[in-house]
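Lab notes, practical 5.
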Amino acid sequence: MAIYAIGDLHLSYGVPKPMDIFGGWKDYMKRIEENWRRKITPQDTVVLSGDTSWGMSLEEALADFEFLQSLPGQKILLKGNHDYWWTTARKMRSFFDAHGLNSLEILNNNAVVAQGMAICGSRGWLFETGDPQDDKIIAREALRLGMSLEKGKETGLPVLCFLHYPPVYGECISGPIIDVMLQYGVTRCFYGHLHAQACAWALNGSYLGIDFQLISSDFLKFDPMKIEK
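Output from the prediction step:
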């Protein structure tokens, strides 16, 4: 039993918006499935760090959810900036229940226990512009991350933290997000969002005692990364 992670699947089984037009993304959904089935068992857990489906609603994303349901393992879904189907946790869980998507779980202001770990996280937000509206969103995301980490703390288990946006990117630092992670003693954080040339600026290493790792699907060559045995 193990925990794997991958972000930015950008599945498009329900809507005609494939990523194959971009360099390196040829046959990406086929590659995701082949790599997934090659290494992941029904006893494993896979954390998806946002931008899972191009569907604009739960109904449009259903084909992508069904694809995930068909794959081995339990899946924990985090919100990304392109997850337009995302709604309230109650609606999403009711939708999953109604369609027999029992291997899918939502990470939203909560913590999910998996393989003896507390899975926590939030979407995060952009931070390089300094726009007042962005500051408000970052503050809200920091609050959500804090709620999730508090739930994780209550479990008494080791915590793994997931974000969609990178909290550290080049010279840019998302201070409120980092502060919350330091407050709760987070030591490992995984994030997505970055693609192509942007990956060259990604932090894959330590910052203020937190180990960061980029897990966007093209960076991982569409092969889920094992992060915990």
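Observations recorded by the TA: Residues 204 and 213 are 5 Å apart (CA to CA). The longest strand covers residues 117-122.
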